[in-house]
Amino acid sequence: MQNTLAKEALKQFRIIFGTVRQPFREIEVSCGISGSQLWLLHEIATHPELGVSRLAENLAIHQSTCSLLVEKLVKKQLVQKQRQSEDQRKVGLIVTDAGHAVLAKAPKPVDGILPQVLHTLDIEALKELNASLNMVITKLDAQSKALADQPLGDM
After folding, report:
1. Where is the HTH marR-type domain (predicted)?
2. Quick one: pLDDT at residue 95?
């Protein structure tokens, strides 16, 4: 019985992982950037002049990961850095015309299907899911916890 349930759980993880990865592949083909870069681009377009620290916080990723993704977008001329109008010491991010063109042709949802689905679950279901996933994670290699701050599209 335990073996059968373990295999069923493994199959469910495969379904989730495969379902989550497919849209990221489509984004790379249609937009020429990674799913993570598209998510950042969308967040920057939604919140003009957002700084890297706040952007990382909004996306629940590590700040250094966010900085690397931002630099890739700047290099591709999809995002520009500019001094914020109210505080010249702070640098904000804005989407360029080329960045808006990428967003216009991007498949939806830009932040990925999993965050969208998780937001549809009620609080009790999320608590149960988090508790169950925590049990699985504690059985895994402790180093894998660092992956919590990585965007799904980069995995």
Report:
1. 2-138
2. 93
